[in-house]
Amino acid sequence: MKKKMFTLSYDDNVLQDKRLVALLNKYGLKCTFNVNSGIFSDRTHIHTACGVTFEHFHIEPEEVKDLYAGHEVATHSVTHPSLVGLDEDRFTKEVVGDMEALSALVGYKVNGHAYPGGCFDEETARRLGEKGIRYARTIECTGTFDLPENPLIWNPTACHVDVADGLRVNKKLFELADKFIEAESGLFYVWGHAYELDPYDNWEVIEEFFKKISGHDDIMYLTNSQVLDELGL
To answer: Alpha carbon of 97 to those of 11, 66, 104, 170: distances in Å?
Structure first.
């Protein structure tokens, strides 16, 4: 039987991840959480161009292991700068420092990544590989179920919210889910930030999406690393 895989990736280790993990566990879904080890306990607000303000409050380091148990922790750099063009010393501190700090917290080797701010180029991808990073997710959504050609430049299928719709849950998720359920093979990869689910009725809508995509015997629900394991990459 041809493989169908579904995976999720959420960034920034925010307090809203607690509610998200509860939903994921309810529906048997797996997620990779991209964590900044240098921004624990931080309390800020994000003001968007569309007029929505988000609470961007971070979890405590001692919460990481238990909160994300059964899922995957990956790097997002120590302090969330763009990695493009960083000098070698800063690049190493941001990437290797995050890998080492997170590995110590969770008790296993952390070697995945999501590009901070979505900023990347081929040189940055190459440098990540040299530091021991296995894969790195971009924010360049394909709208397809294609498999990654280069895991260090891994483009997701879709973002969970739609900027053009004021950061409401992306309606295309449901269309994509229908197509994927009928497909014979492929990878459906959704990414986002849990804090983006706070306005409107986004939590209720994303739960409807989780309910729709979950529970199919021919779909494997995997973390990012597990996807690559299945693909032999």
So the answer is: 17, 21, 11, 34
DSSP annotation of 194 reads: G
Q: Count CB-CB contacts under 10 A for residue 18.
A: 12
pLDDT tier for residue 65 given thresholds of 50, 70 and 90? very high
Cα separation of 49 and 46, whole Å?
A: 10
Q: What angle do CA 26, 72, 111 make, to 5 degrees?
A: 170
Q: Read off the pLDDT of residues 13-48 as tens digits, 9 standing for 90 and up.
A: 999 999 999 999 999 999 999 999 999 988 899 999
Rounded CA separation 224/32 (Å): 6
SS3 track for 65-109: HHHCCCCEEEECCCCCCCCCCCCHHHHHHHHHHHHHHHHHHHCCC
pTM of the shown model = 0.97
C-alpha angle 208-55-82 in degrees, rounded to nearest 5? 95
Q: What is the CA 72 to chain-centroid distance, rounded?
A: 10
Among 151, 122, 118, residue whose Cα is nearest residue 136: 151
Taking a C-beta distance cutoff of 8 angstroms, is the pair 48, 26 a contact? no
Cα–Cα separations (whole angstroms), residue 146 to 21, 157, 210, 213: 26, 8, 20, 17
Chain Cα centroid distance, residue 154: 11
- Tokens at residue 80, please? 């969330």
Mean pLDDT score across all residues of the chain: 97
pLDDT of residue 50: 87
